Amino acid sequence: MITLRVPTLQDEAAFLSAMQKNISLHHPWVKAPITSEEFHTYIKRSQQDNQKSLLVLKDNQISGVFNISEIMQGCFQNAFLGFYAVAGFENQGIMSAGLKLVLKYFFEELKLHRLEANIQPENKKSIQLVSKNKFRYEGFSPRYLKINDAWCWHEHWTITYEEYIQDFPETVKKDHIEIVACDPLWPKLARDEISNIRALLPRDLIIDIQHVGSTAIPNLSAKPIIDIQTAVPSLTIAKIVAVPLLQKLGYEFWAENPGAERLFFAKGMPPYGDKRTHHVHIFKPDSHHWKDKIAFRDYLRAHPDSAKEYEALKNKLASQHTYDREKYTDEKAIFVNEILKKIKQ
């Protein structure tokens, strides 16, 4: 059983024994207390209002440590996270289970909004731990922290309350599937957003940009979400450049749903907004995704009977899978793939 609690003076012997085992495991990233004096200083510091230390225990044995530091209330509501496993308990999922408990404590009990972990790029295990638990990469700073008398580079990984609750049932329920009648304003909304994107992204990053999806097909009922796809010369460069810039337009980069050949952004998706209004898909121009979306759009524009058949299918699937976008998309894909096969014959 994995549990979480604050350390006490009674933990001294067990804590110091665990930290002695840890010296080689965590060098050079962690310098934990290894003497009685250092432990007492650690306990005293953890009792300050702006610091929290938490022990992860497996069957009452100290298995890991999380330190929350520089807790700020008021407008910022932010803190920094440090952590390390105890030798003998690493690579067992214990720290991941412990981090989930830490996040629950941080967001639900301390009621803070943002938690940041600063990790050296070479520390792959720590990066893997936070990335698996909804933290997102927010940037990189050279010479950020002085460790062992050397200024070290760090990656910034953060999680906000919105990321924490994004998979909660009440959040998922808000992000339901709704098919509405065709809105004649959709093409204008797409043109306006394309203009906003062109004004924001560097000119040499955009090869082409187009309105796709059901809102790009005249007289077709659809989810009221404007889909825009952008062709770029390099996804690697696009990720570095586009993520922070599109955030200025209200988009969230969906790191869990990119695939190897695309980047995906959503605007308004709960819990970041009330409902989705726009999607941006970024591909290379030779990607089959780029070509297929345009081909499918153009086919339905030219074949109103097929468009109506697609509309009927979407209405049916939306009623069957209102709260399950994955099933809705998977079953809709059967029709899409049949049309694409017909186009390529």
In brief:
The chain contains 11 helices and 12 strands. It is of the alpha+beta class.
Describe this structure in words.
The chain is an alpha+beta fold. The protein has two domains: 163 residues, Aminopeptidase; 173 residues, Beta Polymerase, domain 2 (2-Layer Sandwich). The protein contains eleven helices and twelve strands. The strands form two sheets. Strands 1-2-3-4-5-7-6 form a seven-stranded mixed beta sheet, sandwiched between helices. Strands 8-9-12-11-10 form a five-stranded mixed beta sheet, with helices on both faces. Helix 9 packs across helix 10. The N and C termini lie far apart (58 Å).
CATH class of the largest domain: Alpha Beta
Gross CATH architecture of the largest domain: 2-Layer Sandwich
N-C termini distance: 58 Å
- The portion of residues assigned to helices is 40-55%
CATH topology of the largest domain: Beta Polymerase, domain 2
Oligomeric category = single chain
Structural class: alpha+beta
Strand content: 15-25%
Order of helices and strands: EHHEEEHEHEEHHHEEHEEEHHH
Uncertain stretches of 5 or more adjacent residues: none
Number of domains: 2
Tell me the CATH superfamily of the largest domain. Answer: Beta Polymerase, domain 2
